[in-house]
């Protein structure tokens, strides 16, 4: 098998929220870098939107044997990822590759960083009589970069300022009211310099 290594950035639909089967129409830029034998590594980046990602035909040339023997075509194929977990992904564990080569994974909320996996392919033929039932591994690196979050603030509690209404009289001149706006945040902690 081999992993496809497109050189350009992909724009994909997030297919569904991780905690439900509700369809979403959001778009996510995804770049994944992988070290393949027969192609240049690419840098694909995933904006962490904590949604389920699905990429068809990520792995190709998937056969039960290197010679694609007729006698082995009915074997069951499965991909394995090592290590088996990473904090970038929700409780569903590691990314998954279907026997047809579709990659799917679910990002954890507000997590970013790099995950490196070793991907191998196994068949159900076993190793009896000197048989070989696995191939690989191929290194796969998924890098999730932080998304710039908008700044935010809250108006102080109603008990402090009566229904969040501030009354100003023009004849009173300039006034300063301390504490009217609270919880002022400049967005994601990783973007403090902005």
Question: What does this molecule look like?
Answer:
This is Cadherin domain-containing protein. With 194 residues, the chain is mostly beta strands. The chain folds into 2 domains: 144 residues, no CATH class; 40 residues, no CATH class. The protein is built from 1 helix and 15 strands; from the N terminus they run E-E-E-E-E-E-E-E-E-E-E-E-E-E-H-E. Strands 5, 6, 9, 12 and 13 form a 5-stranded mixed beta sheet that branches. Strands 3-7-11-10 form a 4-stranded antiparallel beta sheet, with no helix packed on it. Strand 10 and strand 11 form a beta hairpin. The protein is rod-shaped and about 95 Å long. The protein starts with a strand and ends in a 9-residue tail after the last strand. About 23% of the residues have low confidence.
């Amino acid at each position: 098998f081999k992993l496809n290594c497109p050189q350009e950035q992909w724009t994909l639909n997030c297919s569904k929220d991780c905690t439900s089967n509700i369809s979403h129409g959001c778009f996510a830029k995804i770049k994944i870098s992988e070290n393949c034998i027969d192609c240049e590594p690419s840098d694909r980046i995933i904006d962490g939107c904590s949604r389920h990602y699905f990429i068809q035909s990520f792995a190709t040339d998937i056969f039960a044997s290197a010679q694609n023997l007729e006698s082995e075509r009915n074997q069951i194929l499965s991909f394995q990822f090592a290590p088996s977990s990473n904090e970038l992904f929700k409780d569903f564990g590691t990314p998954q590759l279907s026997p047809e080569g579709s990659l799917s994974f679910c990002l954890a909320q507000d997590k970013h960083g790099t995950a490196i996996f070793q991907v191998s392919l196994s068949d159900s033929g076993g190793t009896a009589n000197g048989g070989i039932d696995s191939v690989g591994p191929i290194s796969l690196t998924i890098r999730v970069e932080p998304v710039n979050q908008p700044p935010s603030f809250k108006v102080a509690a109603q008990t402090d300022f009566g229904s969040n209404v501030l009354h100003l009289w023009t004849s009173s001149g300039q006034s300063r009211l301390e504490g009217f706006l609270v919880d002022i945040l400049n967005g994601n902690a990783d973007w403090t310099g902005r």
